[in-house]
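thread: overnight batch results

M.L. [08:02]
morning all. the overnight job finished for the chain we discussed friday. pasting input first so we're all looking at the same thing
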Amino acid sequence: MTKQEAYKLLNVNGVGLARLLGIEPAAVYQWPKDKIPVAREYQIRDLAVGKKPIGCLEQIKIA
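M.L. [08:03]
and the structure it wrote out:
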């Protein structure tokens, strides 16, 4: 998935995408234009179908 495809899928720009993913806009703008990180692609696809994306920190459980 490209950044432009992600923007179009969620109807957002780079800042909006960053907000949805809970990251800084600078991180989004550092991604290559032709291919976003695979983990972020899965999160974006989850958001597109109305699911809450899985976040790394949410998965850590302290015993």
